[in-house]
Amino acid sequence: MSSEKDTAKRPEEEMNKDNVKPDALLGSPSPSHPKETDKGQQWPSEPPKQENEDAYSVFTRSQKNFIVLMSGLGGFFSPLSANTYLPAIPMLSKDLNVSWTLINLTITAFMIFQGLAPSVYGDLADMMGRRPAYLIAFIVYIAANIGLGLQTSYPALFILRCLQSAGSGGLYSLNSGVVADISTTAERGKYMGMAQSGIMLGPAIGPIIGGLLAQYQGWRAIFWFLVIFGGIYVIVLGVAFPETARKVVGNGSLPPTAWWSRSFVGEWVRRRQEKADPSLRDGRKSASRALAQKRILRWPNPLKTLLIIVEKDVSVILFYNAIIYASWYTVTASLATQFTVVYGLDTLQVGLCYVPFGLGAAVSIFVNGKLLDWNYRRVALANGYTVDKKKGDDLAKFPIEHARLAIVWPLVYVGCIAMIGYGWTIEKHAHIAAPLILTFVMALTMTACYNSMNILLVDLYPQSPSTASAANNLTRCLMGAGGSAMINPMINGIGSGWSFTIVGLVVTVLSPMLYVVTQFGPKWREERRLRFAEKKRQREAGKSKA
């Protein structure tokens, strides 16, 4: 992105997130570097031409679509695991001889671990790469599901649900990191929408699958289904999913040095090319080693998430985003019990009542992504900037907060009105179509709000996108856990009408926080950039003295 007002070149760290110059990564220029096309997977047969050295990503469009599709499917497992469980709550309560309240505590515990896990996986992924983080998460996840399918007591259920969440919850932060690896800010709305599709569709599809399995095969079938589904995903991941972390593969043109970061397909293609042209081997190895030397491998530090949370603009975004998520979760967590009691539905019918959530989320994902990219271009044009989808844009003086949040305001208010209406239709025993239509509206609007703010967080922390997403996940899940724990006692005490009225009003009253971010966010962002630059200068000065 360039501007008539600001002709200075964008900072190196914005151009290349691993802070390694392109010539150090890719070697001397060559005319044979492939351009981005819609053809199948290509590894550059030689280092790229000089004019393409600073291309943000060398992955083709079809490769990007596959990568984002796999990433989105990975993110699908956490909400799928959380929500296939919901229709089986009455069955579990009866079979394990415990109250609904105790079963609901397993939901709260699941969300707490869902919030904590990405703090570990996010730092691991930013440090070692996306593939090893995915593989570790799925080993934990599949093992937990095997245990859940075999357990026979409430304590075992509680502990294994926590372990299941520790595995699947880590996947949430990874898909945001993958999108940041391969897409510029100008196209990030579209790709983030695709990557977030799994996260948003899980709450809708999960109860349907869970309802069918529990109704006809028993609740244990839910966990065996997750074992099989997770196993198939891991096989595809190991065979075909490439490493995308910029600290490991640069802009995608370098083969990773560690075996766990290599896909079978990528290795097969690379070896064929190097067999045809042996000179490629040494150039690629030296460039990859130069990049690897800049990485410091250590134990993941979950406290890095807290360092992001305390930033002024980030803290405001995280808090309000968590409030929106918690309000949405009060609906999803209570729907099964409310529709069972009020409308007398069975397990399968309750699962089908989550379909409007899925439809609303699906529409929101694809429409909101395009809307965000359109608004980004509109704001850029209004401020005298041009958009560069190939190299990426300099956000130092660009009002990215306005570009991302401008569309959130009206959606928040529509969603809150729908939530209040939903509560009163349940309270008054209105026709079942009324609350179902309102759940569609809530899913449509709340998903768009949540997704927009998540993209903004990645924009603010492009150098550590998985860690930024982990911070988002931590706050939203802890807030969501509180919402799921309090909503049923609230409904029992004051009724669903006033309960959801209070929740909707809280979201509405706190909406001026969006204005605070839009108004003061650019200033806070610049202060952070200068502070980081000074710390980097001091570190380099200390190294030179040593």
UniProtKB/TrEMBL annotation:
GO terms for molecular function: transmembrane transporter activity. SUPFAM superfamilies: MFS general substrate transporter. Residues 67-522 form the Major facilitator superfamily (MFS) profile domain. The chain crosses the membrane at residues 66-86, 98-121, 133-150, 156-174, 195-216, 222-241, 305-328, 348-368, 405-426, 432-453, 497-518. Residues 1-21 have a biased composition (Basic and acidic residues). It is found in: Membrane. It is a multi-pass membrane protein. PROSITE patterns: MFS. Residues 1-54 are annotated as: Disordered. MFS-type transporter; part of the gene cluster that mediates the biosynthesis of the antihypercholesterolemic agents phomoidrides which are dimeric anhydrides. This is Quinidine resistance protein 1. It comes from Talaromyces islandicus. The lineage of its organism: Eukaryota, Fungi, Dikarya, Ascomycota, Pezizomycotina.
